[in-house]
Amino acid sequence: MLKRLETKIIVSLALILAAMIAVYGWWTGSSQRSVYINALTDNIRVLSHSHADDAATFIVTKEYAGLESHMMNAASMPDVLSIQVTEPDGHVLCNIKRPLRGAPPKLSYDTRAIAVPRKAEPSLWREGDQLVSWAPIFAGTHLGWVRMALTLTTATQLQKATWNSSLQIGALWIMVGTLLMIMVVKRPLQAVRELSLFAQELQDRKGAQVSVRRGVYEIDLLADALNHSSTELREAEQRLLAEQERLTVTLQSIGDAVIATDTGNRIMLLNQIAEQLTGWREDEAKGMELGQVLKLGSDAEYTEVMTQLSSVLAARRTLELTGQHHLHSRSGTLRTVTANGAPIIDSSGQLAGMVLVIRDVTEKAEIEAEKRGLAQQLAQSQKMEAVGQLAGGVAHDFNNMLGVIIGHAELALLRIDTSGEMRDRLKEILDAANRSADITRQLLAFSRQQHAEPKVLDLNETIARMLKMLHRLIGEDIDLSWSPGFNVSKIRIDPSQLDQVMANLCVNARDAIAGVGKIEIETQNVTLDLHDQARMTDLIPGDYVMLVVSDSGRGMTPEVMDRIFEPFYTTKELGRGTGLGLATVFGIVKQNSGNIEVVSEPGHGTTFRIYLPSVHEVAQEAKPEGERPVGGTETILVVEDEPAIMEIGTTILSQLGYTVYAAGSPEQAINIASDRSKEIDLLLTDIIMPGMNGRDLSERLLQSRPGLKCLFMSGYTADVIAERGKVDEDMCFLQKPFTMQTLAAKVREVLDGA
């Protein structure tokens, strides 16, 4: 066994030595050949450029015989196979060739043109066993090319000669080396035997049975032990790879971004979500500083955020960044995230780095912001609704009392001379009552409970008729600009409500302008869709007419804009306003199914945009009211459960020349109407009364008096009237409180109507 092992070692080492010597000989020959070729390359580069300079002289002087003679001398070198001089397009001027190395060069005229390089730059390359150089000929301009080809046969011969000499020397070294190996190989074999014993012990401890090809006893034992260890190592490696794969899948499956760093805050790992959020691929980010990849917070917050994250490593503690932060990706995308960090501790208890978990809460933050906005809108709506309900609750009694005051004041004025202190005091009473009635109407308009008589209007024509009145309201120092839109659609609104909207907006704009300024009014058709609901939550998509009123005033702060539609809220000085102007505008717009937008900045004025639904109907012409009350001789049945209103209404109608029957209840009115001897032309009745409402009373009387005309009145709000009074839009209606002129005109309108 010992001899077999020694023989194998000696033979193997001899073969290895022979192979090494052969490789060394080949390498040495190749090195010699490379050195020769490099030297040849330098020579041909220098020669070709030198010949190109000489050729330039001959070409310029057109001494082509001298050119051929010079190139023949240049071709006398034994390694030169050919020299060709061409024009820039490849036309051959001189062609010298040598068929074999050592043969004399000859001029040849069999080639007329050859392919030349595209660029006028020197080039050098190998073509088989030839080294070819191209040198451009310049004399102020590109005159042509010099092509030289050298043979590499000498280099190949030098390589073979070097290899042969190396092999001869190697054979001698193999014989000497074999003798030396025989002398020294016995000592290493002792170590191999000891290693075999160790391998046997290792194999017995592991209990592995590995089948190997047998040959040398000691080596077989060593192979068995090493194979066993290799198998265990391979299994351990497979377990580690499987564990790494599970860890990778887990990290990629987590819905949050995960970033791991070392103790120097350098990136070690990014999962897929982290790549998407930061815009960095893991292979790009590895080794980079954490702050270069993770851009958290604004410029002002960035330093503080990174300091907090560094404390995770310094204090070895888990940290959750308070609140939400903006994450700027590599591409500039902005996301809202939360972040927390924890230290990485290895099995020996040493700090290995830090892991960050970043959660994308952009959509959640947007939803929460939207919820907060909706909650604010709901609170604002509920607040306004509460004020509206309060206004509607007191409207009826307040209107009745105002009606009594206005009626008696007007009757008293008719009985007093045109001058005197008493007449002035009655006028003051009447003015105060009318102003109180205006405040009530504004409150009802704000709460959308005002009874309205909408008509189809051309907005451009209506505003054009109002311009003179608006000029008087705003004064001469303010420029009023009117820009009507082209072919603006019709709208449906009570003309008096439109007057209130324009007057309140223009007065509000006037008060916002200090000194000289400008108010601009414009109209246009617009189409609002679902995207506009982000600004106007109760918007119904469709076609609208937009009315814009903008001013060059001082503008408003966001705090003021949050409250501008609240009733009785005003920033004006005491006595300059009631705070009902914009509240009235808001209520009228909402009552007519419209929307309103406000844009304002301090120092940059304010713009109101009102959107009213467009209608496709013919506009109704407004009928001017008479300046003085007109009476008549017809008979009127007045039904009113409030005695004071009954008295004043009866008195006014009687003074206007009408015959009046007064009834304090529906039952009394039915009894009066049942008397066929009494001619009744008009029923003037309150809508809301105990026992029976005015609509039911009119239907009852119309059964016996088909030609009876009806006029309804009420001091209640529109929602109460609609719920309890059954009033349609086409019914004639008179809102309390009313003046003598209003009552006379409405009665006359109903009696004269078809």
From TrEMBL:
CDD domains linked: HisKA, PAS
UniProt domain Histidine kinase: residue ranges: 393-616
Keyword Cytoplasm: no
Domain (Response regulatory): residue spans on this chain: 635-751
Keyword Coiled coil among record annotations: yes
PROSITE patterns listed in its UniProt record: HIS_KIN (PS50109), PAC (PS50113), PAS (PS50112), RESPONSE_REGULATORY (PS50110)
Enzyme class: transferase
Positions of the PAC domain: 317-373
Annotated InterPro entries: CheY-like_superfamily, HATPase_C_sf, HATPase_dom, His_kinase_dom, HisK_dim/P_dom, HisK_dim/P_sf, PAC, PAS
Coiled coil: 219-246
Protein EC: 2.7.13.3
Record field: catalytic activity: ATP + protein L-histidine = ADP + protein N-phospho-L-histidine
This protein's name: histidine kinase
4-aspartylphosphate modified-residue sites: D686
SUPFAM superfamilies in UniProt: ATPase domain of HSP90 chaperone/DNA topoisomerase II/histidine kinase, CheY-like, Homodimeric domain of signal transducing histidine kinase, PYP-like sensor domain (PAS domain)
Location of the PAS domain: 243-316
Keywords noted in UniProt: Coiled coil, Membrane, Phosphoprotein, Transmembrane, Transmembrane helix
Residues annotated as transmembrane: 9-27, 131-150, 162-185
